What we know:
Layout: H1 5-11, H2 22-32, E1 37-42, H3 48-61, E2 65-70, H4 78-87, E3 94-97, H5 99-104, E4 130-131, E5 134-135, E6 138-139, E7 143-150, H6 151-158, H7 170-182, E8 186-189, H8 194-201, H9 203-207, H10 213-225, H11 234-248, H12 265-272, E9 276-282, H13 286-292, E10 298-301, E11 315-318, E12 322-325, H14 332-347, H15 349-357, H16 374-384, E13 388-390, H17 399-411, H18 417-429
Parallel strand pairs: 1-2, 1-3, 8-9, 11-13
Antiparallel strand pairs: 3-12, 4-5, 6-12, 7-9, 7-10, 7-11
Helix pairs in contact: 2-14, 8-17, 10-18, 14-15, 17-18
Amino acid sequence: MRKKLLSVLMSTCMAAGLLAGSGAAAMTAEAAEGEKTKITVYLGGDAADENQKIIETFNEQSDTIEAEMVTLTEGSSGYEMLTVMYNAGNPPTVYFMEAGDVLKLTDKLTDLSDMECLQYANEGTTEDVTVDGVVYGIPANLQAYGIMYNKRVLESVMGADFDPSTITTREEFKEVCDKVQEAGIAPVAISPFDWNLGNHWFNQVYSGQSENREDRDAFVQSLREGTADLENNEIFNDYMDTFDLLMEYNYYKDNPLETVADGNEKQAQLMALDQVAFWFHGNWATANLRTLDEEGEYGFIPVPVSESNPNSGKICTLVPGYFCVEGSTTTEEEQAAGKEFLNWLINSEEGQQYVIDCGNIPAYTNNEATIEESVSQSAVEYTNSGETFPMYVMYPSDHATQVGASMQKYLAGEIDRSGLAQEISDYWASQE
């Protein structure tokens, strides 16, 4: 998701729960009478420096708890690293995981259902980590993706009073792209990474099947059972029609996989240097853009699709990951300390600002930090107006690599739409 989704997830800003119950508070107080209760926090990714700083800030203000950051081993996914740590008998007290991975470890996690912070959590943000009424993870933050635009480029081509929100259909998008191209600027940049194409672009096919979660799950189940007709599916073809349009105007049209090993940096440079107008990406790219172009203004438009598509006029939002408290190897004092650590992160001024500084969107309504970054501001406007749809996250752990690889073939012209539908259908049918 510039990096794999999980790397972004692991680097996202921490948020979560209030210390629940007087018993837990008493345990923390008892620990304070002796040495500080020591906890470890599992993080990783691009925000390592910021993560370390926020942990140091926590330690400076806490008289009872000492937190230590555990970093992600290069080349490992978060879940892989966590598995190694469990096998070694030293899992962290607090750790960050995707929703699907949380569900694999519910027997090892602390019940967080009674944490007071959940009353502030945005609607639906704990749905994917709740089993039989028990909440096992606290949402860290929100992220959003859609088609990002460069306001400076659009105003130079379309006029200073141009409103990007008027682009709602493929026809309107094509009209703007034609004018941008006539001005000598490439209209679109497509990031060719498997996580971007598989877990972000193609994900819209699942989420677009219905506004109802049960219907989305049923569609994915039909893919698993081999009964879905993906090639003739209306939503699949709707999104692929739009993808074809992006391919037509792609800066990398002649060599679409050119930057597959380079991360987000090159696409961010194209945006910052006014060499492209649009980029299918998410608000996690703000760190790159800020470094290159502090004064630039960017925002989102929804991916243009048919009006009948449930996702029409909306951008996608997601909880990139959840914070969990280890419950199988930790003491009650350590569990209470882990909750208190998370409590501070979501309620303190420093913790709330930390989420914003990382370019993310608060997952809690009590976060009062000011958002100044234009991409995140745009995402919040969609969120506040209800013009968002949830990312479908109940896919296998190899979804990005496998479905993303098929999308890369399509992007490179190695397979046609029928071949793409067949490869993705075969992938799902192979899942146990």
